[in-house]
Amino acid sequence: MINFHQLAVLLKQLGVAVLYALLGLTVLACWSDNGLVSIMWLPAGLALSALLMGGNGTPSQYSSVLSLLMS
């Protein structure tokens, strides 16, 4: 049986996933010539902010995400 806390976490994750997909489609529609590649990838900022604000990650997850975003 799923409790209230598990349901809240699941809904937050689903919300972030939907926002990530919609922001990705918007970026590709607005800043891409062919609809496949974009220089700017704003959903990465959304994913980083969700990870940092969620507070459920370990320091190794934070450092790996930051290193990927800065490369």
SS content category: mainly alpha
Shape: flat
How far is the N terminus from the C terminus? 42 Å
Summarize the biggest pleated sheet. Answer: none
Helix content: over 70%
Low-confidence stretches: none
Please report which band the strand proportion falls in: under 5%, 5-15%, 15-25%, 25-35%, 35-45% or over 45%. Answer: under 5%
Counted up, domains total 1
Topology as H/E string? HHH
What is shown here, in short?
By secondary structure, this protein is an all-alpha fold. Helices cover about 75% and strands about 0% of the residues. The protein has one domain.
Keywords, please?
71 residues; mainly alpha; 0% strand; flat
Structural write-up:
- By secondary structure, the protein is mainly alpha-helical.
- The protein has one domain.
- It contains 3 helices and no strands.
- It has helices at residues 4-31, 43-54, 59-70.
- Helix 1 (4-31) packs antiparallel against helix 2 and helix 2 runs antiparallel to helix 3.
- The chain is flat and about 45 Å long.
- It starts with a helix and ends with a helix.
- The mean pLDDT is 79.
Task: Present the secondary structure layout.
Elements: H1 4-31, H2 43-54, H3 59-70
Helix pairs in contact: 1-2, 2-3
